[in-house]
Design goal:
The complex is a heterodimer. Chain A is mostly helical. Chain A has 11 helices and no strands. In chain A, helix 1 packs across helix 6, helix 2 runs parallel beside helix 6 and helix 4 packs parallel to helix 7. By secondary structure, chain B is of the alpha/beta class. In chain B, 28% of the residues lie in helices and 23% in strands. In chain B, strands 6-7-8-3-9-10 form a 6-stranded mixed sheet, sandwiched between helices. In chain B, strand 12 and strand 13 form a beta hairpin. The two termini of chain B are 37 Å apart. Classes of the chains: A mainly alpha, B alpha/beta. Chains A and B meet through helix 1 and helix 5 of A and helix 2 of B.
């Protein structure tokens, strides 16, 4: 427990944690700004309608989760990569191992702390997103009555659970890449590269790439076509996506642990 | 290998290769309990590889290690609970303070008693800077924090790789005093260093390695005695007589003229403690030495044993041996980027 607590404390003090979170909020704010702006365009009535739909509650809850998931996925990969990579770059893993710490325990608890921070960040960003959506609704004269929709509110914990799992998997993927690369920069760079490669390749081979981690992560809550991240019909069914994401998460964590366990630590 | 409790650390036939490069080639070490052991060797001799194996960072291809009387291999990580280590450069989170870094490290491995961190920060004279971020520390301060980190568990065996790196003279004295005090309290300190004069002052026992093998191991005193020399200066016209007298006193082949007859220097390879005896022999033959110097130090011994002597004439440094040829340039300087410290390390 002391290691888990220490890991969380480290991450809270780490500038990268706050920079990543602020980046998420800024991007989220820009997206809502763009949505509100696009809803004013008379020449694109369909786009305007879609923009209004995103800020209309109770659907705005799911839309916000999907938006945070979409932006947060990339940030979670880079964050996971930064945290795992720095353990190698700064030699702090070396110091822990030299003190007799278990490599697997250190890796797993390091990831648990990252996942916790990612989930807390997601929840905070969701809250900000809901406020932005409500603000957008007010600006567009969309009634806010749907905010207190009982069904939507009771469904939120499940949405949170799905999104948290997906974002944790994204972070685990960055974690694994950085562990293999043994470098903070390489972890971030390769993580971003894989993210965009999957996105681009998915446009050409959607039936293959829908099983890949980022596409599956986006599919866990993407039930609304207006906010889905791929062509309609090419995403996994949300419950299937949850299982696929879980498999990727376990695989990424296993790779990180195994790699760290077997690594010759130098430098 | 059955090292008793009087041996804190032992290796037998330790071998390690990196591809085709041999890092360790059957290294045998025996580090007695309660001493400061100086671990010396030229660059690439295998010192850091040995340190990494001893701390479980890498694994030997063959051979065995005993730590504090127990076998140490894969799966024996808990043996390190009684070991403190500073391997290569100190490793810290730059965004955390010195105290927070020690707290983070204390969360790994064996539990650390409360109050220990502040005690160590005081020991390494970082109490005043404990709240500052490590990113603002100088190299010497990081080094001191690294030594504090190595001492977190109050270890029975302390492994330090170049602990004097970046320390100012006061810091080096403070470190030396602390390490001597640890050894005096029964703990074992294993120090790898490039600063030979520092090791000579600090270590009780030294092990010199080259090309991954142990070349010589023993107490500093006995090694210097066995490998010692005396330099004697006489008049240029008395060189031949003096050489004969000294050869009969110290043994055939033990006397070497330095820098040509006109320089008047003779090097006699004997225990430096015999200088009075040799002086008496010379005086008995009517030759009076104008200067007599003990010519043994760890540096000259090291250069001799590792074949890296760079002073063929032997005139530059006491103990320089005729015929020693530099195999490759050796850089014994401390890190040129090291920031000098103005704060001493008070123990």
């Amino acid at each position: 427990m002391r290691l888990a607590r220490a890991n969380v404390r480290k991450l809270v003090r780490r500038p990268a944690t706050w920079v990543t979170f602020l980046l998420l909020l800024v991007l989220l704010g820009l997206i809502y700004l763009a949505l509100i702006a696009s809803s004013q365009q008379a020449e694109n009535p369909q786009g305007a309608l879609a923009a209004r739909a995103i800020v209309t509650f109770p659907g705005a809850y799911t839309a916000t989760v999907a938006l945070v998931l979409g932006i947060g996925g990339l940030l979670a990969v880079t964050y996971g990569g930064a945290i795992a990579g720095s353990e190698w770059s700064w030699g702090t893993l070396k110091a822990a191992v030299a003190r007799g710490e278990s490599r697997t325990r250190y890796t797993v608890l390091g990831f648990v702390a990252v996942a916790l921070i990612v989930i807390v960040g997601f929840l905070a960003a969701f809250a900000v997103g809901v406020l932005l959506a409500a603000g957008g609704a007010l600006l567009l004269n969309v009634p806010l009555t749907g905010m207190s929709d009982r069904d939507a509110l009771t469904g939120l914990p499940e949405l949170f659970g799905r999104a948290s799992l997906a974002l944790s998997m994204d972070a685990a993927l960055g974690f694994a890449i950085a562990t293999i690369a043994r470098s903070q920069l390489a972890g971030i760079g390769v993580g971003i590269g894989v993210y965009f490669f999957e996105g681009i390749a998915g446009a050409f081979l959607p039936d293959v790439f829908k099983w890949f981690p980022f596409a599956a992560a986006n599919a866990v809550v993407a039930s609304d076509p207006t906010v889905s991240n791929g062509p309609v019909g090419t995403q996994l069914e949300p419950n299937v996506a949850v299982i696929v994401v879980l498999v990727w998460l376990v695989a990424a964590l296993a790779v990180s642990s195994l790699w760290t366990e077997r690594a010759e630590i130098a430098g | 290998m059955t090292a008793g409790s009087d041996v804190a650390l032992a290796t037998e036939g330790l071998a390690k290769r990196y591809g085709s490069q041999v890092a360790l080639d059957g290294l045998d070490l025996r580090v007695p309990t309660g001493v400061v052991y100086g671990f010396l060797g030229p660059n690439g001799a295998g010192k850091t590889t040995t340190m990494r194996i001893l701390t479980g960072l890498i694994h030997a291809d063959s051979g065995s290690v005993e730590v504090l009387g127990q076998p140490f291999g894969r799966g024996d990580r808990k043996r390190l609970f009684d070991v403190g280590a500073l391997i290569e450069s100190p490793s810290f989170y730059p965004f955390l303070s010195g105290r927070e870094n020690l707290r983070a490290l204390a969360a790994t491995g064996a539990p650390v008693p409360s109050g220990r961190i502040d005690e160590l920060l005081q020991l390494v004279a970082l109490g005043d800077r404990a709240k500052d971020k490590v990113s603002g520390y100088s190299l010497g301060m990081k080094q001191r924090l690294g030594i504090a980190a190595a001492l977190l568990n109050d270890p029975k065996l302390l492994l330090l790789d170049e602990p004097a790196n970046g320390l100012d003279p006061a810091g080096i004295v403070g470190m030396r005093d602390s390490l001597r005090a640890l050894a005096a309290s029964g703990k074992t300190v294993f120090v790898s260093s490039h600063i030979l004069s520092e090791v000579q002052q600090l270590a009780d026992v030294v092990g010199i390695i080259g090309r991954g093998r142990l070349i010589r191991e023993g107490s500093v005193e006995s090694l210097l005695r066995e490998e010692g020399a005396i330099r004697i200066r006489v008049g240029a016209e008395e060189i031949a007589t003096a050489a004969g007298v000294l050869a009969s006193a110290a043994g055939e082949g033990s006397v070497t003229p330095e820098g040509g007859p006109e320089a008047g220097w003779l090097t006699v390879r004997v225990d430096p403690g015999r200088s009075a005896e040799l002086n008496r022999a010379l005086a008995g033959a009517g030759v009076y030495a104008s200067r007599i110097e003990g010519a043994a130090n760890l540096e000259s011994l090291f250069l001799e044993l590792t074949g890296q002597g760079s002073d063929p004439g032997g005139g530059g440094k006491p103990g320089g041996r005729r015929g020693s040829v530099a195999a490759e340039p050796v850089d014994w300087a401390t890190d040129p980027g090291a920031k000098p410290e103005t704060t001493g390390w008070s123990s």
